[in-house]
Structures are given as C-alpha cells and as structure tokens.
Amino acid sequence: HDPPPPEKTNHKPSAPCSVCFDWCDCCAVGSALPMLLTMVEGPGRLPVDEDTQEVLRGKLRLLQPDSPEVIALFTELSSHIHSISSEENTILLMFKTFEEIWKFTTYYSLGFLDQCMESLLFDQKFWIQSLDRDDLGIEVSVPEDSLHLMVKGLLMQEGSFFASCSSNQIFDSSTCGGDLYLEQGDVAQFEPPILGSGWSVLSLNDGARGTTQKPALEPLIPFYQYVVPLYLLHPPPPHISLSLRPGPVPPSSPTARGTCRALTEYHGQGPDELSLAAGERVAVVGRLVSGFEWFLGRAEATGALGLVQTALVEPTDNLCESTDIYLDAEERSFFCFKEESIIQETTALLKKNSQSDIGYVYKLGRTEIPLIRSNMERILAPCRAPSPHRGTQSETESAADPVLRAPPPSPPPEAPCFTVHAPVEGTPDGELFTPLLSFLEGAPYRREFAVLYGATADLLSSSLFAGHADEDALVAFLSVARETARKRRLHWAQSRACFLLGLQCAGRSKFSQARVYLEEALAVPKEAFADVRLLAALYANLAHIHLLQKNAEKYVAAAERLAAAAMALPECVASAKDHVAALQYALRKAVLTRNKMAEARACFVLAKCHRLRGEDEATLPYVERLLELSAAAAAAEEGGSDGVPPSRVCLGLGRIYGALGRPLLSVCAARRAASEPAATLGDCLGALALVLERRDEVSWLGGGEGALPCHAVTYLRRALALGEGPRGDGGEEEGEGEGERHALSHALTLCLVLNMRGIALRRQGHLQRAAESYRAADDICEEFDDMSNWAVCQANFGLLCLKAGAKTLAERHLTRALELFSGLEQEGPGLQLVHVLLELGRHYLEQGRLRYGQGCLEWALLLAIKAGLADSTQQLCRLYGEVRPDQARCIVYNEHQLPLLAAQGDRSREGDVLQAISEQYLSLGTAKAYRVALDCTKRSLGIFIDLGQREQEAYAWLQAGKIYHMLGQKELVDLYIQVAQDVGLITGDTGFVLALLEAAGDIFHNSSQDRDKAVCFYRDRALPIALKTGSEASRLRLCHKLVDLLLSLRRHDDAVEFAQTALDISITLEERLSERVAYHRLATIYQHLGQWELAEHHYLKALALCPAPLQFDEETLYYARVYQTLGDIIFYDLKDPHDAAGYYHLALAAAMDLGNKRAQLRLCTRLATIYHNYLVDRQLSLCFYQRARAFATELNVRRVDISASQRQISRR
C-alpha cells in the first residue's frame, strides 16, 4: 500500500526515446505523477503543526485505492491511482491519454483537487471540530516540471501537437525552394520523428511545411491543443496573416471601447459596411478587439450601424482600454440567478432536510446546529425587502434568468405559421404573400425573428410553413415571395426571404444556389443594416458554405465579420450549428494572437451557443476556460472589475457538472463559489442548494437521514456574515416585517434557548440551574403541544437526573420521552429515539434489570439498522459479552457491526471488532471455528497494516501464529511469531516488546505441544528486557511462569533459581499472595530434589501466609493437602512418626472442616497405622481404626490395612 515513490533521475537516458527517437526526457509517459498533500490554514495557506499533519498521514493510511468512493473520485478527476505513500503525504497518479491529463490539469488549476481531497480524507466529525480554526484545509501541489514532462510525452504519443517556438528558428522547407523561418512565439504544428526522420513542422500563418532535427519549442496549454486543431480545418490563404493588424488599439490593449476617428474616406461595399468621411467619429458598439479585421460601429453623425475596418480608424481621447469580459447586464444574466428564487429554493431544501425545525436541534445533550428555519429567516430577511441602497447591478441580476441552470423561462414568442398557396388564376399574386411579407418587413429586429434566424431547413418545412406537398413547392413559394418583395421594394422582406431560400437550399445540399441567395440578402440596397442578428445569421451560413466548398479566403472573410458581430452583441448569435462553426474561428484567432480578453469573450459566446443547443458536454471546456480567465482578470483587478465575479461562473459550472453526472466536481465548484471573496448572499445559498441536491450522489457528504451535511456549516456561516452586514436604512416596511417575524417565532426561540442553556449548564456542573431551564422549556413545549420537542426535553431532563444520581427520577423522564417518541408518526425522531433507548438500556443494565435492558437495546438496534448506526450494536455486544454472556448472540451482533463500521469508514473499530470475533470463535474449541477465527484475524491484520497501527499489527501477527499452532500447522507458527517480533521492534517501545515476547511464550506455555519453546521466550528474551527496564512486576510474572513451566517439564534444578527470584521480588513488592505461591513452589522443588528439611521449611512458610480465619473452602482444602504432604515427608522420608502424626492430625482437622470423607478415611488409616505400629498406643490406634472402618463402609471400601507394610504404599 505504501511502496516507495519512484526515484527522480536527472541523468540522460541510456537509450534513445521510444517516442521521439531522440535523447530526451519525454519518457515520462507511463510514469507516475506525485500529488503532494499538505494541511494548511489561514489566509496565507501556511502549513499547520506536525500533529495535524500526522492526522493527514493517518487518513492516507486508511485510504483504500480500490474502494468505490476513491475510484469514483479519481475517475471524475480523469486519473488513475498508482500507489499511496502515506509517510510522504503523496498520492502517485497515472494518465493513459492526453485528454485525461488535460482534464486533470484543468481541475488542478481551478483548485478543485484541494476540495476533493479534503472531502475524501476527512469525515464530518473532523470538520465540525475544526470550525474554530481559520481556513483549515488541504493544499494539493504537483511538481510543475514532472507535469510538463508528462503532458509533453502524452502529446507526442498523439502523433502531433501545437507548440510555440521558444527561439527564432530556420527549417528546411518541404513545400518551396526557400527555408521556413519562424520567429520566437510563432505557433506551429509539430510532428515527432518517425523511424529516425526529423521533426515535421506546419506553419499556421501560411501553411508552409519544414523539417528539422531538434526544434526549440514549448507546447501550448491543453485547452489550446483542443482549440487549435478543431478550428484549423483548412489553412488560410498565404496572403492572410494571423499576426496583429495595425489599428487604433495597440497589442498591449486587447479590447477597447469608446469612440474613434476615420483616417480616410471610405465607401461601404455593401449595406452591412459603414461608409465614412475622413475625420468622422465612430462610436464602438460593444468592444473593438485587437487583431480582428472588423468591429461594429455607429456613426455619430447619422446614427447608422455597420461594420468598420479596424485599419481605417485611429483612437480618440474617448477610446479607452476595456478589461471587462462581459458587455452589459443582459450578457451577465447568463451567469446570474434570481436572488428571490435562490432564497425560496434554498429555504425549501433546508426545510426538507431538517424535517423538524426545532426537534432536530434538540439533541440529547448536544449543541450541533442552530435553528435552521429561524436563522435562515433572519439571514434572508434583509434580501427580501427592497432597499434604496441596492445597486443597479443587483436589480438587474435579480431580474435575470439563470441560463446555465435551465432553458430561458420566457422563450421568444413563436413565429406564425404561413400557408403555402399555389398561384390561383384571377387572384393577384401580392394578396397571397401579404401576410408573409408583412411579417418579414421592417428594419429593426423583433423577437419573433429569433426562431427564424436559428431555424434549419427541416424546421422551415415542418413548422413555419404548411400546406406544401414537398420542399420544391416551398422553394417555389419563397421564390415568388422574394420576387414580389423586390417588385414592391420591400428590401427587408426581400433580404429575409433570400435568407430563408438560402437555408432551404443549403438543407438540400445545393450550396452554390444557397450562397447566391445569401449574398443577395446582403447586397439588397438598404440605408443601413439595422438588424445585426440577421447580419450574423447570414455570415454564419456563408462561412459554413465557404468551408464546405473549401473556399478558405471567403471563409475567413465571412468568419471575421461574424466575429465582429459576436464580439459586439453576443445575443445575435443563435444556436444553429453554422454559428458554432464560424465562432470557432474567432476563438482560434484570439488564441493565436494571444488576446486573453477576446479569448474569454469567444469562450463565453461559444458556451452560450452550445448551452442553447443543450450540449452540456461541449459547453464544459469553454466554461472551465472562462472561469480560469475570469479568476485571473479578477485577481489582476483586485476586485475592481465590474464584470461577473468568478463565483457566478463557478455556480454555472457546478450546474453543468451535475447535469453531466459528475456530482463530486459539482460540489467542488459550489464550494469554490461560496469561498470566492466577491461571493454574494445569493452565491452562498445557491452553492448550498447545489450541495444539498447532490448529497445523495456523494457518499462523503453524509449527514444521515433528516440531517444536514457538515459542509452546510461553511455556507451558512458565510451567508450569515453576508446577511448581517451593513444594511443601511431599510425603510419602515423592513422594520415592520422583522417585528412580525420576531413576534411569530418568540416562543419557539425562547424554548430553544432554554434547552441549549440547560445543556450548557449541565456540562458545567450547575445541575440545579440546568434543571430549571429544562423545566421551563418543557412547559413551553407542553403548552404549544409540540410533541417531538417535548420528548427531547424529557430525554434531556432524564440525562440530567442520571448525572445527579437520581436513578428513579431519571427512569421516569426517559420512559416518558420514550412514550412521546413512540407516539410520533413522522420519521424525524427516529435517531432521537435510538439515543433514548440506548441511555435507558444502560440504566437498566446498571440496575441489574437485564430483561428490560436487553429489550431497550434490541429495540434500538432495530431502529438503528436503517440509519446505519453502530452504537446500539456495540451496546448489545457488551450486554451479551460481559453482563449477560451469550456467545452465539455476541458473535452475531459483532458480525452485524462490521458492515456498519465499514460504511462509516471507521476502520480502526472495524479491526478491533474483527479481533473480538476471532477471540470468540477461538473459545468454541473446534477446528472449523479456528479457521473462521484465522480469517477474521487476517482481515484485521490488513486493516492494522493500512492504518499503520504497529502494536495492533504485531498482536494480530501473533494471534495468527497462535491459531496456526492450535490447528497443528507448526511450520507457519515460528514465521508469524518472528514477524510479530519484528513489527514490535519497529515501535521502539520496550515495554510493548516485553509484553509481546511474554504473549509469544504464552502460546506454547498454555498448549500441550512444544512447551519447551516457551522457556526460550520467557528466560532468554523477555526476562533480560524486564531486568534491563527495571520492571519488577514483569520479572515476577515471568519467574512464576518459568517455575510452573520447568516443574511441568521436570527440570527441577533449573527451576530453583527462578523460584527464589520470584520469592525475593514478592517480598520486596509486599505481594503476599505471590510470596505464598513462591514458597509453595520452592517447597515442591526441594521435595522433588530430596531436600526434605528445606521442603518442610518452605511449606510451613506458605501456610503461615494463609489468611486467618479461613474464609473459603479452597483455603481449607489447601491446608488439608499441605499438612498431609508434610506428614508424608516426615513419616516416609525423615522417618519421624511422632511429628508425622502431628501433621496428620492437622490435616484431619481440615478435612473434617471440609466434610471430605475420603480424605478423612485416608488420614485416619495412616494415624491408625502410626499409633498401632510405631507409637504403640492401642487406644488411639483402635479409635482411628474404627473411624476408618466406618468411612470405608460408608464409601464402600472393602479393606482397611494398618499393618507396617502400609509404609510401602505409594503416596497419594
């Protein structure tokens, strides 16, 4: 999971590049691109402290490259994960095609990668806890050199690409006798060598070709690689240059507005061109764009509108540079939304998600989210009432329609449908065409013409005209109408009829005939071409026809004129395909002339055109590029530009991402929109609405059913700051509205405040004052019959009583809360009810009422299954594992916990639960259970490795080794234990290593096989560490285990040392029980070694440490056995019947206290033997003999032997 990143090499490759067959570094293709993640905060985006960086590293360890969330994210980012290096905070990415890396670099430049990584790596809890930290987030950085190298390599894989010359160069010409010369900055198409040949070069200025061995070039940015080849369908004629033309605007000023002056007299070549006298002033309509041949102007003297050649005018004092991409409020409406609509829709979404306005806030002792409805009403109140201090732009934006969000809400009125009549004899032809010509006549543009100018041949035939049998009949009808208009001198009707005829002929692939009609429409004599939209439609169709007929010179001329109209009045561009094709020329020229303002305007016009056609995928690259240019322009102007802010473009981009099924990028665009400095209240609420709409599609937004995602806090705080800003004098209406709203929500707000105050006081320990607040809130809820919030008040009161120790009162309030929640029909209080049941279940368990506790917890489980909560399942596992043991149920509930924890992404708890399941299966003691336990252990091991939790990982390795030992697969046991030791040593924690070695020894110590291996772990590995660290408790424990182990192995000589050490440590630590055990074991060892006096001494020491009086039967049994052992040692080994009789008497007394008749039989027999054969006391001998006979009869023992040969009986 964490392989080392590929080493960066700066040396020359050892062989020629397989792509370009040259000694270069373009072999970055196929390598991984490192993406470095850093936690930053503050406006300066400075790195945070090391502890927070370690949190990021921990999250990276959790990241699973094959998880659905990660795959979905990086698929949207058009990249593939190669590996993750958590220690270096790096994700290595790979790209297969140029399109993938183009999209990735776009998202990187727009800042979407930062937000994607933040949302992917950190859960809602982290962001809620970090709200007090200023702009805490993740900053993603990519090595520019590596990225540039990879882009270059992928471009070369494509076969050819476009680049600018980084120096003046001469190429061997392949099309003419002279050499091809390109200056620094010139753009050309380059093709890498093939089979050892040189580079091929195609000049974009004149189409000349050349070759060279190794050119000096700099590839164009990915967007330009998409733009230039798409629009370069045919190279321009040799005499048409793409360099900047001389004119009134210098190259340093991309666009200008104002007035200019004619240099010479000029007579227009047609009604679309403006005729000028020398020195005549011309007002620029829209923008005059540097590098373009034409612009749209209006003569100040006559007011005539037409096209003007840029080279024929010079600047005046009123001509100034323009840095605004957009022209007026009408164009800005493309990215602006109705403020009132946003407010209403966002409020509706918040109501839908919050479900219960106050009940959702009344968490059980939690203060998570403020009252959604009330606060939103306060935030939005200033925006709903009109204020005299609001600017003109805001009013315009409020009236605008969200073009990017949906089609225009008020489309142009439909053009009337005209009936095609065949000529009727005796009827004047003019009467048949009067309705059509009346509609087509008129110089100014009318809204009815919008459908006409954007129509196709099929639309003309099916919708605008009816009654014709076929297309020939329609063409004949329009031809007669055109001729009638010409005879009546209805010039505008004639022009529009010619336009319709041209569309119809083009639709039938009669392009030459169509070109004749369109050129006639332009040439019809008119005083001025007042309908610019008709002019744009004519030039768009002409450009398309010239392109199809491969007439490059006329295509460029028509496209230049259309570009002038589009740059001046983009609303004149229709959604027809012909318009799109012609506008692409304008964008390409803006790119090649490096005119950023013209490029932005062309992107805007093309985005609008594609959007009107419903082509979201085609719209996307233009809007993304427009956002980059808008952000750059806004940064350069430092907020001084009066154009559309980037936040509006971000919102539009987010809508497009959502429509294309890319919810992650949609949310990222919304987050950026809300975080822009120039964002307005409408932007923040629009971004919030976008996030709420995409919540079901993005898993990490979370929030649960009936809850808002934590990301909503960012937008709400931003909206609150904007809503509570300076309001000015809002007038009496606003004050009255605020007073009404305040009066309406006063009671509910008071209830909310009382509840929150009670929570705060309870946490501070002021229980009496908290109780008073809860009681007051409870009374208000009861008065207003607000059942859901009343239930929460009762629950909070119950929690307060639990903390105060009033168990009975707490049970009463929690039970009442349970009744109220159960009576609610809505689904909103489901999560609240789960919390109440868990608290009540814990209370019942603490009181020992297991049935009630079990019922509450299982009820909570049923409610929590749908919500995906793991808390209730955890409580049930504790119930059946500790309080009321039930192994089968405990396993079932633990296994049910696993998918819930996996869904929550809590992998640490998931690993712990797997370990618990493994232990439970091990306790079943069957081979099948052992194999299930092994599987669980291995799954937890993988989790701990990913998390970097070395201690848990080491224990998991050890657990797996233990299970293999229990399964009898001895060849794997030593391997797993060794790996566990190696991982333990990595931690550097001596105490942990000591505990791990001891646990490894326990595997063999507690087994019946290979027990001698435990000696190695205890004596040779663990004990030296315990001695070195001075851990006396560990030394004592290890010595006890060693003594027990050596005794079982009958290695009594080795056991003496450790038994004595255990005794010494026990005396030092004053551990009386341990001291007693040490004395007993020393006595046992000395007994086996035949050192009877020492054995007797240590047995007596052990007995002296026993408590007096005796408390348990086990202690009495210990007395009986030890005294019998002492009697046996004295009687059989030391040959002292008198002292032996004393020990036997003490043992008999203990046996009589226990009521153990078999032990009494054995002791009475031995006493009878001693008194009969050695002490010669006939009376006592007879007494003990009779008692022995009585026990023998009762226990059905046939014979009691008290002869001297009894000495030879083996001890029992």
From TrEMBL:
UniProtKB keywords: SH3 domain, TPR repeat
Keyword Mitochondrion in annotation: no
SUPFAM superfamilies cross-referenced by the UniProt entry: SH3-domain, TPR-like
Positions of region (Disordered): 385-411
TPR repeat start-end pairs: 1076-1109
Alphabetized InterPro entries for the sequence: SH3-like_dom_sf (IPR036028), SH3_domain (IPR001452), SH3TC1/SH3TC2 (IPR042772), TPR-like_helical_dom_sf (IPR011990), TPR_rpt (IPR019734)
Residues covered by the SH3 domain: 255-318
Protein name per Swiss-Prot or TrEMBL: SH3 domain and tetratricopeptide repeats 1
Organism: Gadus morhua
